[in-house]
Amino acid sequence: MQDATITQGSRLFPIVLAIVAAAATGVLWAYANPIQLVPGVIQWRIFAFLPPLIGILLGWKSGFICGYLGTIVWSLLAGTFIPAHSLIVDGIMVGLTGAVPGWMFNPRTTTFDRNTLLRIAVVCLVTGLVMVAVVSASLAVLGIFPYFWALLYLGLSDIVPMLIGTPVLVKPALRILDAAHPSGFTRF
User: Fold this and answer.
1) Predicted TM-score of the model (pTM)
2) Has residue 184 got a pLDDT over 80?
3) Interacting residues of 176 by C-beta distance below 8 A, sequence separation 6+
4) Residue range 8-180 in CATH 1.10.10.10
């Protein structure tokens, strides 16, 4: 009976942690971004590394949940929620910035040496570029912000923190996660 509880707990752990991380991501994006690149529209998201980091640590679905729900929480708290943009384009694309690295890098099968950390940075760069291009197009189509200016400011806002933060924090975060859950868990 106890083994079944441990197994169930190890399956729920990444799902619960992904939802908690999504809420934290949204709150941090809304209230802990001191530099406004375009006041009221785009701020420098110093915590943009959270979805890819959660994806790598907990699994690609967890990374997607963190990015998607984090975007929804952020847009509601920041007063920038636009149903077509936030629920469909922005949410899905930011979710993919968490899903793709989580799909490509599994801590159980990956050695996080210098080359792997460089590959993580490249994956964050590519997924970030795709996300920024699509989100910028959505903002332009909705008449919220011109496409090329959105590319510039969203690129600075999201890609730079993902590119730097994810590879720098993945090893310390893995040590913390292993210490907190030494029996392991099923990635989600």
Assistant:
1) 0.91
2) no
3) none
4) no
